[in-house]
Amino acid sequence: MNITSTFSVAGRCSKTGALGAIVTSSSPSVGARCPWVKSNVGVILTQNVTDPRLADIGLATMDKGYDAQSAIRTMMAASDFPEFRQLAVVDSKGRSGVFTGEKALGVHGEFFAKDVASIGNLLSDPAIPTAMGERFIERNDLSLPERLIFAIECGFNMGGELDQEHSIALLVYHPDTPFAYVDLRVDYSDDPLQDLKKLWEVYGPQAKDYKIRAVEPELAPSYGVKGDA
Question: With 70 as the cut, is the pLDDT of residue 174 above it?
């Protein structure tokens, strides 16, 4: 089992149907364990004493047409140690849910509403998940990646974890493709949020081009590299 002190946001864009998550932790490589997304199905965040296997179970449940709360019940029924787990789920229709086991680490919190769910453990302030969720709802003028970054930045500004955050991941899927539209990770850094924001500044303007190159290469813009005709 991986002990992960973490705070995170799962979200859906009601305008585009995009699904995504952002998560940060004092542990390295949080993006390898905690955020899981499937196009047209849903988003799952699995953290605290992390069991990544639960995400497959939850996504399979939603893929059968069940909602976010059903996915949580199925994951908890499958787990031998539900009291250690912390989960957030948003399904493809924007229904959401959260779960925090009784043995969640330290100060913890949770929030869920239409199109968003946020959770955290070992927090400096139990209000962080609510503030992140409310910030996500407030900024529906932004793209989903930007909304997620904006929301988790609120958590950082409120003090974040008791320990120093070192890794962060941003994962977004669009409904018309089965692969990630955005998959950015900072696996270990002294300032993971700022490093992720720098990555987004570089990758964000190019994200649509990479999608076009995959599905409509004859319409793809110039690659902008040496030797590109």
Answer: yes
